[in-house]
Write a structure and sequence with these properties.
This protein has 392 residues and is of the alpha/beta class. It has 2 domains: 5-177 and 375-391, Rossmann fold, CATH 3.40.50.2000; 186-374, Rossmann fold (3-Layer(aba) Sandwich). Helices cover 48% and strands 16% of the residues. It has 18 helices and 13 strands. It has helices at 12-26, 43-47, 64-69, 71-88, 99-115, 142-149, 160-167, 179-183, 185-190, 215-235, 250-257, 270-276, 286-293, 306-315, 323-328, 343-354, 357-371, 379-391, and strands at residues 5-10, 36-41, 51-55, 92-96, 126-130, 152-155, 173-175, 206-210, 239-244, 263-267, 279-283, 298-302, 335-337. A 7-stranded parallel beta sheet has the order 3-2-1-4-5-6-7, with helices on both faces. A 6-stranded parallel beta sheet has the order 10-9-8-11-12-13, with helices on both faces. Helix 1 (12-26) packs across helix 18 (379-391), helix 4 (71-88) packs across helix 5 and helix 10 (215-235) crosses helix 16. The protein is elongated, with a radius of gyration of 22 Å. Mean pLDDT is 90; it is low at 193-198.
């Protein structure tokens, strides 16, 4: 019996990391013994043993407007990957996050096979999406197409499985838990129940600035964050630390900071920084869940281009862009989007939290309960088990 061939498509550094973790888990599955892995991703996937033929991590963008501006680039990547899939004919295609691209890729591959079935000799790969597109937040009608394109959808948020079951019961959906839980398991033993008594007590409150992981996010978020920090310091004493995910962003950050030397900048080490933080000011996104995991009260913001915002505000159906707020069903974190994300609003919300220790403690308790809903450690192991079941 020939070894299985598995293709993975991941975009952005976060998807590259998640795909690498999944590959390590798949290699422990008997059904995947000796499997050959290839596809698109980055350095983490390559280290995990994937033959990375297309580097997707350098093409990280967010927002409809930004994607449209780079349509030609994404079309070339799409066509190249489609040729690879049709030439190598994998047994399984695993689309890791990167939903806008991957939904279209899964559909394109299905279409090629269905239009010319005789050419492929009965080959029909199983197609998996690991991390649900946020169709529950906007354009829910797309879920129907997903039932035609995917054999298995692996979700990381607890409410998603029921959402799909109500609308498209024919699609197999599994909740595997959030991979973040595994990554922070070591810290979890130190911060039992994410309780405040395990937190480092600071004489001067430590405020983290988490502007995002993309150049565009830093361009839009840093000016308002830096000015908010200045206004906070005019009212009270605080220590500010900016955490960036990669070295490539540091020159841009220092250019924006200018004379704001009171803000320390570091690369990586977010878990340790969160363990020491009293408050964070962060862009909406995965980092707000990391703040929640460590029990850090957070003020969130997001600013994007005018075009993307105009489209987004017409199609987004959820009351918040901050995932902890959605999971809790209430605005646990103050949130400011687009024109509301001003230095004054950020500073005011941050000062209210810094000056109210009882409110911060109440938020930490809510966050502790919220994090328990994200599943036990072992998300990628459970995902690998579900994928392996397709091969048996």
């Amino acid at each position: 019996m020939k070894p299985q061939t598995i293709m993975l498509v991941a975009g952005e550094p976060s998807g590259d990391r998640l795909a690498a973790e999944l590959v390590k888990a798949l290699k422990a599955e008997r059904a995947c013994a000796g499997a050959r892995f290839f596809g698109a991703g980055g350095a983490e996937m390559s280290k995990a043993g994937v033959d990375v033929l297309v580097d997707m991590t350098q093409h990280s963008v967010i927002g409809i407007w930004e994607v449209l501006k780079r349509y030609g680039t994404f079309k070339r990547l799409f066509d190249r990957l489609l040729r690879l899939a049709l030439e190598r004919r994998p047994d399984v295609l695993i689309c890791v996050d990167f939903s806008g691209f991957n939904r279209r890729f899964a559909r394109g591959l299905r279409w090629e096979i269905e239009v010319q079935p005789g050419q492929f000799g009965g080959w029909r790969p199983r197609i998996v999406q690991f991390v649900s597109p946020q169709v529950w937040a906007s354009r829910p009608g797309r879920a129907r197409q997903m039932a035609r394109d995917f054999d298995l959808l692996l979700c990381i948020f607890p409410f998603e499985k029921a959402w799909y079951a109500e609308r498209i019961p024919e699609l197999r959906v599994e909740f595997v838990g959030h991979p973040m839980i595994d990554r922070f398991q070591a810290q979890s033993s130190k911060l039992k129940a994410h309780g405040s008594k395990f937190r480092i007590q600071n004489e001067t409150p430590v405020v983290l600035l988490l502007p995002g992981s993309r150049v565009g996010e830093l361009n839009r978020h840093l000016p308002v964050m830096i000015e908010a920090a200045r206004r906070i310091l005019a009212e009270r004493k605080a220590a500010f630390r900016m955490v960036l995910p990669e070295e490539a962003l540091i020159a841009q950050a220092h250019e924006q900071l200018g004379e704001a030397t009171q803000i320390e900048v570091q690369i990586g080490g977010l878990p340790e920084a969160l363990q020491q933080a009293d408050l964070a000011i962060a862009s909406t996104g995965t980092v707000t869940l990391e703040c929640a995991y460590f029990g850090v009260p957070t003020v969130t913001l997001y600013k994007t281009s005018w075009g993307t915002y105009q489209i987004g505000k017409r199609i987004v159906k959820v009351p918040s862009l901050t995932m902890p707020n959605l999971l809790a069903g209430e605005p646990v974190f103050p949130e400011f989007i687009q024109d509301a994300a001003t230095p004054g609003n950020l500073a005011r919300a941050a000062l209210e939290l810094l000056n109210d220790s009882a409110r911060r403690e109440a938020i930490r308790l809510k966050l502790g309960k919220l994090v328990t809903t994200l599943g036990e450690p072992g998300a990628c192991r459970r995902a690998a088990e579900a994928i392996a079941s397709l091969l048996k």
